[in-house]
Fold this sequence. Notes:
Elements: H1 16-33, E1 37-38, E2 44-46, H2 47-54, H3 59-63, E3 66-69, E4 75-78, H4 83-92, E5 102-111, E6 123-132, H5 137-153, E7 159-165, H6 172-184, H7 190-198, H8 209-212, H9 227-242, E8 248-249, E9 261-269, E10 277-283, H10 287-290, E11 298-304, H11 305-314, E12 327-332, H12 335-350, E13 355-357, H13 364-374, E14 378-383, H14 384-389, E15 391-396, E16 401-406, H15 410-421
Helix pairs in contact: 5-9
The chain binds one RNA strand through α3, β6, β10, β11 and α11.
Amino acid sequence: MNLKAPRGTRDILPPASEVWDYVETRIKKIYRKRNFLEIRTPIFEETDLFVRGVGDTTDIVEKEMYTFNDKGGRSITLRPEGTAPVVRAYIENKLYGKPQPFKLFYFGPMFRYERPQAGRFRQHYQTGVEVIGGDSPLIDAEVIALGNDILREFSMDNWKLHLNSIGCRECRPVYIEKLKEFFRNETVCRDCSDRIDRNPLRVLDCKSGECAALKNRTPSILDYLCPACSEHFAQVQQLLETLEIPFELDHTLVRGLDYYSRTAFEFKTRELGAQDTIIGGGRYDGLSELLGGPSSPGMGFGLGLDRFILMLENNRLGNLETNPLEVFMVTIGEENVQKEGWRIMARVRKAGFSADMDLLQRSPKNQMKAANRIGARFTVILGEDELKQGVVQLKDMYEGTQSEVRIEELIHALEKKTGEGN
RNA sequence: GUGGGUGUAGCUCAGGUGGUUAGAGCGCAGGAUUGUGGCUCCUGAGGUCGUGGGUUCAAAUCCCAUCACUCACCCCA
């Protein structure tokens, strides 16, 4: 076959898909415990949403979007990130009329046209939260704490929380001027000399030798925050200290999207090679207005599930015990026996056990073989003789023991055996 | 978008300096006398040697291109 999954995409097959399901389910529980509710937004949106929301000078919009015209001539874009769609939905559905702040979570694929590498895909999966309708530092702390909780819940500890404030519409322009001034008098790399005017904050993030060398002399945004932002940021830090969540101030942390304001944070690990951000987020107080909505400050994060699961696997936490098949039905005989076996299996399933049987009309021996390879806990064997007597052989595949039970006693016997095990 | 590495059965890999029917282990399918797994033994299926060109009497092997994977840059989840 010469058809392949497109570059940067992949199939998630069993047993990996079991791990994904497990992770998603467990994260969802954490959200629900904190009274976050799910939102599902379209996988594609009008292109303009991202151009306006994410920012037209960002890398995402400039070169990473999957954009196309649909048959009606509309410009459509596969969503590259989750926040702008959620805020769009918030405005469109007038969620500001509900009790505030509105706390949402989402799961789903995101699309970016990038060169794939470890932990980076063209279709990747994120889960994230957005708290919209409030600018209290309590919200910032709650969101960051939630990220912290998820990592802890999965016993991950090889990461650091990087924290910064990138100010607001009042103070950031002042800082940006200072920054431009500073960089103009220094030598920066080729990419960055272009950036100085268009998006000077990003120079801070540059890892190239000459730019990185400037880091400790570069003016820090934290020295230019207006009183309101400064106070807000101080409170966020205090709250994190109260919650005993360790963090590291990092004034070079600038998120790539334009809509961020004030608090910005990333949970980074050293285990994933160059793609080290596992959770990234921050506050976006102006986004709603940017999209034509009312003033509705918000705060959220995105968590990269591909990277998250990669990290779990690195720590051998990926070998999660998946539930083994409980019963494999083995029939020995003609059609009448198979039919009765089928009925028995249906009853076993109805009683709450997972059950399967041979679907290839194999010999008894090969049915047993199959049961063994699948890892079934029990086999229930039915032959002509058993059928006549109304019994089955119940075999414990782990212990190799086998006993005869009446068909009507089977469920009871299974319950007893599995009860003993646990 | 830029640079490095890789590309032989489902998986992990062998296949010096080009030479005839491309191999192994594992896995998969079946069998080793009456209706029973795991161990052992036997048998079998399965390969456009990533793809397309080129050099050559002859290419998995050399050259070019292309695609994919991978690592890094860039950027982020």
